[in-house]
Amino acid sequence: MNTKTAKKSAPTLPPDDTVKASPSKRFFVEMLTRDIELQDALLDLLDNCIDGIVRSTKRRANSSKPYEGFWAKIDFDEKSFKIEDNCGGIPLDLAKNSAFMLGRPRIDKDLNKPTLGMYGIGMKRAIFKMGRSSAVTSRTSSESFEVKIPAHWLTEDDNWELPLTFIEPLQNQRNETVEGTTIEVKDLYPGIKQLFASSGSSCEQDFTTAVAQHFSFIIKKGFAVTVNGTEIIPKPLVILSSDLKASSKKKEITPYIYQAKLDGVDVRLVVGFNTQMPTPDEVDEAQDVRRRTEDAGWTVICNDRVIVYNNRTRLTGWGEADVPSYHTQFIAISGVVNFQSNHAWKLPITSTKRDLDSSSELYLYVKNFMREGLKKFTSYTYKWKTYPDEEKKISRRAKPTPIEQLLKVQPDNLWTKVRKTQNQFKLNLDLPEPSRTNPNKQVRFFRPSSEISEVALFLFEDADVPPAEVGEKCFDKTLEQARR
After folding, report:
1. Would you say residue 3 has pLDDT above 60?
2. Is the pTM value of this prediction over 0.85?
3. Of 4, 146, 181, 430, which residue is most buried, by most CB within 10 angstroms?
4. Mind listing the domains of the chain with CATH numbers?
């Protein structure tokens, strides 16, 4: 029986279709907020205020106080969070087309302006971090409006639009239109309620400290910030410096300074002593060491915002490439690196704006000069630590100089050009060195404090004389007898 194999026909394919690739609000609301601490999210809202000032025509860019007249007020408790400012407001076209997007394209209007906003997530991430419902009110010179984000909107993946309602402009006592933004968040999450619950809480204190640190340069330039009615006062940063011209002829205490223009980023670096070197007794005083250590290390600034404050780790060059790890012996060493650019994406910062991008090619290059400056002053402390009296005579001749003043110093004939470059200069004057004809050596031993007090009372009629002075007096008396 002959059989024939039947040829199978090709199956009919269904028509082309599509797959869903739209974002989920759950990702933004739950996952994105996990990547940032509450404090950093709140600081992000202040960053938006500064960006508003930068866009404002009222900012005096060439003034020493370009942020003067601008302010932000932050108030929070267990019921709500509110931040209001007079920093120009959100333009209507920006609000309609990008400001409320969960991630947005680069804003062309921000080109050639020293802003920090890059990804369009800061305001929304901060709002979603705190609560379920919020309202954003904006007033500019031409229009005023309010955008509400209701709780149910956060769970509706098919609804990506928000209602915008026009409101009456607000006038001040001089009949001028108030231009600014107000953000209010309600229906706070339980954990946020607990943190915001009481006035003077650790959350409030920590946040106040963070504002004073991260916005210190901007506040010094005129910006006013209050947190629950308390005005933020920045801590001044100074570096000891003798007259630069005189120091080029006679060795004195002067800072190490580096300046460069690198791919559209202006870089200025200063490192030196923020105060006199500590004596051995001061190093032994635990309380004083803790207080003074807070002032040591590197502060990194991007477009006037402090990104890293007094860092003393490998992130800023400590403990690598022949630079010693931070030790209390170095509590007098401070440095500042200031990055300025009209292209925010070129700055070495992460999306939280509170940390350095340690893999940034720009930062890795500048870090070489940070380490060179650190090495200069750590070496100085090693050389002089056995000559505390002589060293204090030298450092007393140097004057505390505001870091802002040193960052503005322009290169002259005292500076050297960095080899094989056109736009890089550094000031690296020699520091004083101790005499090597009869070098000092340290005599150091330990005895019970009760016995030290007993000897101090015998020698000085004062039991509270510092141990170093007691030991020195004992040695001097013994040396006098030995020479006789």
Report:
1. no
2. no
3. 181
4. 25-231 (3.30.565.10), 239-427 (3.30.230), 449-483 (no CATH)
